[in-house]
Amino acid sequence: STLFNYQFLLHPEFYVVLPIIYSVICAVGLTGNTAVIYVILKAPKMKTVTNMFILNLAIADDLFTLVLPISIAELLLRYWPFGEVLCKVILSIDHYNIFSSIYFLTVMSVDRYLVVLATVRSKRMPFRTYRAARTVSLCVWLLVILIVMPFTVFAGVYTSPEHMGRKTCVLSFPYPESLWFKASRIYTLILGFAIPVSTICILYTMMLYKLRNMRLNSNAKALDKAKKKVTVMVFIVLAVCLFCWTPFHLSTIVALNTDLRMTPFLIGVSYFITSLSYANSCLNPFLYAFLDDSFRKAFRKMLECRPA
């Protein structure tokens, strides 16, 4: 959220546009994800393995949108007034947002693959329980916390001598800073994109191959209607996540391989890419409501006006 901070100071119009964009993402994301959390926890029929992963995805998105107002305040005030501890918390949650979504979607893809595999082989999966999904979700959270820990260590308040002692919340790397910066981008690219996305692509390729062979060798349907709908929903949620996050990671590849001079256009593109990645946190609830009947019914029931 603090990319190109000093160049950004030269363009005051960003101080108006970005807070508006972030405020919309915050309001929509907080409302939608809180509704998803409420529906899953409140409705007994919603306690399924897939919904346990969706619940954790919504919690991760909600956590991010909850702290977004602090980033908005920093933009409006044009400096960081909240101290060192909160700086570490905010930048850590900012990085949780990078890793948590894709890792929960990877787990959901593994789950979909196992469901398809069991269906193709006409086998039951006694180990696939709501309790097991809860344990797996906890393991994902611990893994993400471990991955994000280096960013928590390097997060800090930087006082700029060039801008009258203006304080900003940034990743403060030791000397040589450029080498550490490149290492952090490669680290994020590999762990936050290359490994999980490759895993997901392999899983979906194998899944489609098995379904295709099933159709060739049997008249029976590879998946019943409900399982097929859930698989399609997971695939679309994944596609939207990749649409929002791929430009962010592609910009990393560009930053590592070129030495571009920062221009107003490039600064604008950088913030557009960041805003697009942030927007992913508010899109998923709409996808669930549009693609899943049980979510749609639960949302509708929640919005019903009941007489006092």
UniProtKB/TrEMBL annotation:
Keywords attached to this entry: Cell membrane, Disulfide bond, G-protein coupled receptor, Glycoprotein, Membrane, Receptor, Transducer, Transmembrane, Transmembrane helix
This protein's record includes keyword Cell membrane:
yes
Q: Which residues form a coiled coil?
A: none
- What Pfam families does its record include? 7tm_1 (PF00001)
- Report membrane topology: Multi-pass membrane protein
- Residue ranges spanning the membrane: these are 20-41, 53-76, 96-115, 136-158, 186-209, 230-248, 268-291
What are the recorded GO MF terms, alphabetically? neuropeptide binding; neuropeptide receptor activity
- Protein name, UniProt field: Neuropeptides B and W receptor 1
What's the encoding gene here? NPBWR1
